[in-house]
Each structure stands twice: as C-alpha cells, then as structure tokens.
Amino acid sequence: MDRQLSSDQLENRILTGDARALARAATLIESQGEIGRRLIAALFPHTGRAMVIGVTGPPGAGKSTLVDQLAKVLRRQGKTAGIIAVDPSSPYSRGAILGDRIRMQDHYPDPGVFIRSMASRGKLGGLAAATLDMALLLDAAGREVILIETVGVGQDEVEIARLADVTVLVLGPGFGDDVQAIKAGIMEIADVFAINKADLPGADRLEQEIRAMQSLADDAGRENAASIRRVVATEGKGIGELLGAIEGAFRTRGRRSARTETWNYRLREMLRDSLLENLAEEMVQQHADRVAEKIEDPYTAVAALRDELSHAGSGRM
Predict the structure, then answer these.
(1) Exposed e or buried b for every residue in 86-106, given b needs 16+ CB within 10 A?
(2) Which of 42, 106, 196, 225 has the fewest beta carbons under 10 Å from its own?
(3) How far apart are CA 271 and CA 141, in angstroms?
(4) Structural fold of domain 47-255
(5) pLDDT, tens only, 59-70
C-alpha cells in the first residue's frame, strides 16, 4: 500500500474491509503513536457491532488451538472474524516471541479472518497496551466476532474480563495449575468454562471441581453461574456447542449495561496509561531508588509524581 495514503483514504478503505488498509492501520495502532490514536478516534463512531470474546487460561490449556477452531466454525456460519493473539515479549527485542501462530496458518489465505500477533511488552494481565485499540479497529472494519487470546500467565489474566464482552476460561484435565488457578479466584472472571482435552482422564473430576466452587457462591452467583462445555480442540469436537454457550452468555449479560461497565474500566485504563506517558521514566526511577533506600516513603513519592503531572499539564495549557 502507498505509505503516503491520507488518513481519510485509509479510514475509508478500512470501513470497506480492505485487508491491506487494515494491516497498515494495525501497525500504526500497535506503535501507540498519535497517528494511530487519531485514526481510532475517527473510526470510533463505526464501532460497537462486534462481539468481543476473550480466551484465557493457563499455558498449555490449548487456547491457540481452540481459537483456531472457533474461527473455523464462525467462517462456516458465514461470519467474519478478527483474531488478536497477545504473545509473550522477548526481553531483548520487545517483540512477540511466538509471532504469528503456526496453528492458525490455515486462515491466512481467507480474507474473512484477520490475524494479528502482538507482544505484551510487559503489560500485566497478558494484554498488550494496544489490544483495545486493535479490537476497535477490527470492529470498525466490520469483523463480526473478535477473538482475543491472552498470553496465559495465571491470575493476572483477570484484565481480559474487563475488556471483552464474553470471557472464556480454558482449562484442561491433568494440569495442577488449572485447579490452582480456580482456587486463586480466576474462575470468577469466566462467563463460559471450556474444558479442553476432554477425552483425557480427569475431565470429569475437573468439571466436578468447577461446579463445587460455583456452589459456594451466594444465590445470585449460583443463579448466574458460568456454563461449562467440554471440547477436544485438536479434533474440533464440541466447538459448535461452545460457541452457542458464548453467544448465550453474550445475550444474557445485557449488552447495554455490560458495555457501560466495560467502558468504565477501559477509560480508567486509558487515563492511567496516558498519565504515565507524561512522566519521564528517569523521574519515576529516581523516586523508586529513594523508596528502595528508605529515603522516601511510597506515598510521598506518589504525591511528588502527581505534582509533576500537574505541572506538566499546566505547562501544556
């Protein structure tokens, strides 16, 4: 694509679903620059139509394979899909270690599926800083379903629940980390449980443990307990039923109220990131050193950094 393409031309091509324009815009957005922000601002009135599904769970649970199979079922239904795969970052290049997912390579020739791998760059919660903007971009481009697969780091994955319309927690039998994750509270983020590798021994026990944990909730919690579906992602078994449960959860949550709650969290995250961008890393490090050496307490340090933000804001006015 012509790199001199104007913003208006890029925006128009995205709205028509142009794949090359979408790829160009994704690069601009992932760089977290002003051009990408302006582009999202212009496209935002065209968002709000897609169903955003967060797929999370411990490493080894089979998230990538499950996302691949969900995309296949969606395409058979005639729906377009966008896949955002948030990968661990290289400590050297800060780029995605896994890169484009090998398991999803069958989708690359299909214009109805857009796949983007993003490096987490140390972002807590398994989400890249630009994940929200990328989801909005795919939404504006007309993708009907957006699948966000997280790094898979455990308890910090709760962040995905605040960004997605529906969160699928993928677990598998025979993994001690799965049960530990449930007990650590991660099960509370799930709108749907997917027990993957359900053909292996231990699937019955895992489902029983999930239901036992759900039984400990209050009346409202038990009434709204997340549904449980068994799948064998490598064989494509149970994927249609899982997608049906996801769609049911999306309808049950009440789209309008859920969107309001989600945006309350998203705006807080965006504000926090925006404020941190205006603080020089050297200044934060100076206060960190002082706190570590017990020269300064953390509350005094935060107050000083807040004052610095206020001065910076006054200087721009």
Answers:
(1) bbbbeeeeeebeeeebebbee
(2) 106
(3) 25
(4) Rossmann fold (3.40.50)
(5) 888 998 999 999
